Amino acid sequence: MDRSLLSMRATLVLIAAVLAGAVVGLLSALAGDGVARSVLCGLAAAGGAVPLVNQVVTPDHTEGASRRQPSRAGDDHG
User: Fold this and answer.
1) Are the CB atoms for 45 and 25 separated by under 8 Å?
2) What is the pLDDT of the chain when averaged over all its residues?
3) What global pTM score does this model have?
4) pLDDT tens digits, one per residue of 8-31
5) Which span out of 5-9, 42-46, 74-78 was modeled with the highest average pLDDT?
6) pLDDT tier at 67 (50, 70, 90 boundaries)?
7) Would residue 66 count as lying in a domain?
8) Based on the number of CB atoms within 10 Å of its own CB, is 42 exposed (0-12), middle (13-18) or buried (19 or more)?
9) DSSP 8-class letter at 62
10) Cα angle at 26 between 42 and 55, to 5 degrees?
């Protein structure tokens, strides 16, 4: 088994989201909210952090999604 389950980028995004959720949940609990509300705040923060961190982290260079092939002359007329 040489393949990893998650890419390095996906692992980084998930770890950052879990960390953000834990911090928000802890701050909510320290502010005096109940346990249920603190957990919900942490889950909401983790869910909101996933797309944000996903956009901030640059994509892997091995995917090749950001590279475009130059168009050839005459290809636009089929």
Assistant:
1) yes
2) 84
3) 0.67
4) 889 999 999 999 999 999 999 999
5) 42-46
6) low
7) no
8) buried
9) T
10) 45
Which range of residues forms the domain containing residue 26?
7-54
Share of the chain above pLDDT 90, in %: 58
Number of helices (H) and strands (E), helices first, in the chain? 2, 0
CA distance 60 to 54: 12
d(CA 72, CA 22): 51
Q: How many domains does the structure of the chain reveal?
A: 1
> Could you give the maximum distance between any two Cα atoms of the chain, in Å?
67
Residue 49 within any structural domain of the chain: yes
Evaluate whether residue 78 is within a structural domain: no
Tell me whether residue 2 is in a domain.
Answer: no
CB neighbours of residue 9 within 10 Å? 15
